[in-house]
Amino acid sequence: MSDVAPTPARIRRVRRLSGLWLIPLVTLLAALVMAYDNYRSRGPLVTLHFKSGAGIEANRTLIKTLDVEVGRVEEITLNAALDGVIVAARIHGDFRHLLAEDSRFWVVQPSVSLAGVSGLNTLISGQYIEFSPGKAGRVSESFIGLDEPPLTPLGTPGLAVTLVTDGDFSFAHGDPVYYQGTVVGKIEEIRYDFHAGRTYYDAFIEAPFHELITPQTRFWKSSGVQAELTSAGVRLETGTLASLLLGGVSFTNPPGVIPGEAPKVESEFYIYSSRDAIYDHQYRESLRYWIMVSDSVGGLTESSRVMYRGLQVGRVLSTDNIPAGRNLLDRTLQLPILIEIQPGRLGLPDTAVGSARAKADIENWIRDGLIATVGSQNFLVGQQQVELQYQEGAKRQDIEYFNALAVIPTDLGSIGRFTNSIEALLVKLNELPVENALTGVSELTRQASTSLARMQDLLKSTQDLVAGERSAALMQQLDATLASLQALAESYSAESKASRDMQRTLQSITEVMNQFRPLAEELRNRPSSLVFPSTPPPEAQPLRKQP
Amino acid sequence: MNARFALLLWLLCLSALLCACASKAPAGLSYYVLGENTTTRAAPVDASLPALVLESVTLADYLQQSGLVLQQGEHQLQVSRSHLWAEGLELAVPEVLLGALREASPQYRYFLRGRDFVPESRYGLRLHLAAFQATDTGEVVASGRYQVVEAAAGREILNHQFNLREDLRADGYPQVVRQLRELLAQLARSIVNDLPGSRPSSNDPPVSAEPARVAP
Predict the structure, then answer these.
(1) Measured between alpha carbons, how far is A9 from B143 in angstroms, rounded to an integer?
(2) Is the pTM here over 0.80, yes or no?
(3) CB contact under 8 A, A544 and B88
(4) Domain of B153, in residue numbers
(5) Does A511 score more than 80 pLDDT?
(6) Where are the domains positioned within chain A?
């Protein structure tokens, strides 16, 4: 065995990286690329503010447009003030461009109301957030969620109009607008003007019916039943069942109006109380003034007329305005009467511009000697009215103000003028040819007494005639004729078709009501009997007597 | 399985169950007419005969519905759900009574106010039916009151209460209807017999009609 000297191993340091390292590297790279791609393709996170989080769940509730999923809720938290929730939702990147400023979000949930049933599918599919894409150019990522679904989707063709009432009646969000009984729009927004005591309704009229709206279009309240008793009978008018239950607004155009003339932007329409009232003119603008009356204001009521040159230009608003700190026992007290003048009645446009012009003109007139007098409107019932007129040769004077409103001076000489007229009348009466007339009257009396004597003779001969035999027979015949006429009238009234029909209808109604009575009683006792009917006990049968 | 699908399945099962409970084979209904369904021979009418007009027939409230009534005891009524009048009694009774009157006496021409054109009449008849039913004691009953006025003078000449009863000759509602019609015929004979100067057309069985008590 030879000794072989061991060769020392050469140790070489490997400086090269193993090819195996490529695998994790490539994987890492791929992961990075995918992560970047995912980051790039994932959509924006939008913030939605809702009043309540009912039905919204993180990572489950979907955001949908036209039933297509466009995003998902990621997080839901309470807001700082604890009066609402903030929902963070991720919108898919493909739909990023739809997030305009006027986009709208609302929670779709089942709802049952008089207007209908909606959102029933969410009972099974779960609630979701509906997203209505906006049209505005600017993109936004924070939105206020709607409490209720918008009645008209954005971009629906049609026309938005504003309806006004004086507050005598009201409508609700979603109440329908009818044209000839068809629902053509809805009331979307309600606003109140507490100062003017008016309620404004923003309504949307859908195409193609919006073309019917012209500046002359008249709207009226169309709910309920209208009954009218005329000589022709009873006239009963009702709308469709829905309009009976829901109410709503109807509109029409006065005859002769050609559709197509578009109303001005933001035009307002007054809602009249009934269809019959739509031709009454309504004035929007009015100017208020005081007049001071020294004597009685009796006969002046609220809505007494204010006249100028024989035409009505306004009305009295109130008469019982004793100034603070004064009382009626004070003889020098002038009673202030509040009147309003409507520029529309003066022939000016019924707008703010017309109103401003009327205000300026009337103030000028007051300076030039416009005065108010209280005159009689109706002698029989003692109704009074306020008359405006110019005082001839009056000096230019300054306007007085009372409670921040201008005062139209009253004519101090009106009573004097009245006395003058009375005097003139008395003079005329004095000059009447009374003596001649009296002579004529005595002649007339003489003639009348002659006529009366002749009349007496005539009556006597008539009496003789009536007592005669022939006339007795005539009377009998007349009696019989009258009796048969009466019988005929009676038979006709009892047998008239209307009477028979009415009787028959009432009978049928009674019968139907009687048939419903057992059902109603059963339901009252056992409400479930409609679904789970009980087996009725067997009926007894009529049996003959047992011997 | 998807939870929603399971819920849907449950709902379907539940509604099927409800439908099964709610639906039940309807009971057989029988309809009855009071009048005879045979055409009567049109007899020539003598226009010179005096006219008797059936002015009105009123019914007790419980008779104004479609079920036949069975009186159980003194104060209890059973309104049948399966035995029904084909025509309301308020229409059927005047027709049948008019036919019965015609058969009872040919001395008058008979008219129904509201249906016929009514000529000048001698007598006007008003009838109120208080009971018109079978009883659980095996009888059929027709009771009420009739009033006859002389049309020209407006004078009341008859005001009678009647209480007609007959033992049922067979079981069942068809027999009840048959005998109710007979009671009406009996009533018609009693009315024409009571009219002043009437000649009864046949040998009538006595009718237990008694004069009305005159209220003070």
Answers:
(1) 140
(2) no
(3) no
(4) 48-211
(5) no
(6) 41-144, 158-279, 287-423, 434-466
